[in-house]
Design goal:
With 99 residues, the protein is mainly α. The chain has three helices and two strands, in the order αααββ. α2 crosses α3.
Length: 99
């Protein structure tokens, strides 16, 4: 579910994409979208106001660490984002984690 030319905003993509997901998986999907969006926003602010930046790999690692922290804090539903490079791209971020 990648954005297309018909998606004029993140909200449009999000609304369209979540309709394609089974109802039981929508909350984890929403949480993941919020987490990734928040991390990108914070990265944007760090670059704009503090002249600090992470590489793409560092940002992805940060998002994975944050997702792990949410799970350890007993957040009930979030998609796991596997750090295994051997995972097929279609499986990344699709495994549901419940604690």
């Amino acid at each position: 579910m990648t954005p297309t030319t018909q998606d004029h905003s993140l909200a449009a993509w999000w609304a369209r994409s979540r309709k394609l997901i089974h109802k039981n998986s929508r909350k984890p999907f929403d949480s993941t979208v919020v987490l990734v969006s928040w991390a990108i926003w914070l990265e944007r602010n760090a670059r704009t106001f503090n002249r600090q930046h992470r590489t793409v790999v560092q940002l992805v690692d940060h998002i994975l660490e944050e997702a792990s922290a949410w799970v350890h804090a007993r957040y009930k539903t979030i998609f796991s984002m596997s750090q295994q490079q051997s995972a097929a791209p279609s499986n990344v971020g699709r495994e549901l984690v419940s604690v």
